[in-house]
Amino acid sequence: MSSTLIHSIDWNTSPLLPVIAQDIKSGEVLMLAYMNQEALSLTLQTGLAHYYSRSRQSLWKKGETSGHLQHVKEAYLDCDSDTLLLKIEQEGVACHTGRPSCFFNRIDVEETPKEPAQEIAAYSISDKIYHIIQERKKADPKSSYVASLLQKGDNSILKKVVEEAGEFCFACKDNDNKEIIYEAADLMFHALVALGAKNIHPSLISKELERRFGLSGIEEKNSRNEH
Prior knowledge:
The chain has helices at 3-7, 37-46, 125-136, 145-152, 154-173, 177-197, 202-212, 217-226; strands at 17-23, 29-35, 50-53, 58-61, 70-77, 84-90. By secondary structure, the chain is an alpha+beta fold.
């Protein structure tokens, strides 16, 4: 991509550029993601697709943990210089569900996805649950517990978090390791539902814990007061 075209992008007006990834051989559209200026620069420098995750609020190299890298062969800006098309060679699959393309939910006809999902072991369990929660926002509440909670809203979601926190505390007080683990899993699950309802990716919680790591309790409290 020429420097003239890159400089035609108005990053101040649109700090995130929509990016379409297309298989260079088959022409199949694989996914839609976003790039900030740094992600585009890294993509062009390395030949590997880098994006900006709106949910994680951070830069990420596609396939860095899963191994499903995207090798960029061609890059095009559209006529308004506000959308990017990447023609790529995909290693593995493009979608976090384990399917070749993110576009497998056909809505004009009833259809079962042709490609079965592959298990992607590199994704953490919290990441998998978060994405499932996002998918359940569109599910039938009659057939999905998560969908029913999400439909009922904050009061029902947060009530379950409080209930599970109480049960976890009682299990700890009873010194029952099996129940402690079971109730902790329930508490973490319902906390993930609450985070998913607010579109907060669990990796942001990990980042906050990393920020606090090595700080004393007093230092951490003082850092809050500074904000």
